[in-house]
Amino acid sequence: MTTPREELEVLREWQSRLRAHFPIITDHPELAYLDSAATAQKPQAVLDAAWTYLTTTNANAGRATYPWANRTTQLVEEARERIKEFLHDPAPERSSTHFTSGTTEALRAIAFDWLPAHLTDGDEIVVPLADHQANITPWLEARRLLTDRGVRVRVVEMPYQAGSGDYDHRALAALAGPRTRFVAVTHVHHVYGGDMNIHRIRQAVGPEAVICLDAAQSIGHLPVSVADLDVDFVAFSGHKALALPGSGAVWARQARGPVFRPGGWSGTPNTVGIVSLVAALDWLDAAGTDRIERWTVALAARLTDGLRQLDAYQVLGCQTSLAADSDVQRRLGTVAFRHREITSGDLGFILFSHGFMVRSDSHCQGSAGEKTGSVRVSLHVHNTPAEIDRLLSALATLQ
Ligand code: PLP
Hints:
Helix content is 40%, strand content 15%. It is of the alpha/beta class.
């Protein structure tokens, strides 16, 4: 197995070419952007696509019949297919793509437009209470809505392994039964950074349960294949996947039930956001999401290993970066940690005085999550080993 150091060496030239695609990064060499899990920076190709669309073709979609309007309608329809292709959808004729403003709205659309029509009295839903709030509250609200209609749905709390942040697949298998209809999961955890091993979730809950994947932190960070993962819904945010804010989508498989069709009039789509999303997916495919994964896993391992040498810090979740099919999987470029004495809020300010932009708070984690805040470093393809080493040196001075 290649070590993180070897991996970074092998990919160094590839990465330095790609880093040059991010103007906001190259324009500020004195700063290090370490908050890609909150929102990602945009490569020039995405900015160009948005500019070109707005200066050559801008019109509304699905309405008028003059050329700009027709072209816009076509771009939106092509984008649906592009998303399916990006997700390695093996049966695009049997899936649908619905545009949203991001993951939050995507999960809410599933919770309110799809879920209530598919649950009956006595059904169970699995909710991951230590994941992002966006993947918790919609399911609890949908349950309340159903209760008001006289349909009682039981919420099963997703079990987690102690200390790692990963789901406890064995405990889940014991909890899941014939009434387990719907399982909300996250692909890459936004605090612990772990790949949550969705194959094992499918094994635990069986072939009939609907699995809804929050892919906010995985799209753009690793190859995502709906066939391989065997999931039924995928929700993601364009802005975390290098596209403009306000673009996101739900991908829905139609195999196990009626088509996901949001109710009512959905209004004007975010046309420029959708155009930027296609450009971002094209850029990511050309860069190679497999290499982005290898790069950010190796950077995260370098940071995790460096932090373990510094007594003043505690890394949250998994302590090391492990192999692909160990119980706890690799850390995909996100590392959260605490200083034993300095609060995470103060640490965030101190780090910015050294040029590091990090997130420091409780990261919108649900009720079963961490009880105190932490500093989160989240990486993307433009980050470098030198930035990690500078960060570790700055952290070492605070010991
Ligand atoms: N799910 C996860 C795992 C996230 O990390 C986030 C945002 O950080 C969301 C959902 C919500 O995404 P958005 O704010 O783009 O809707």
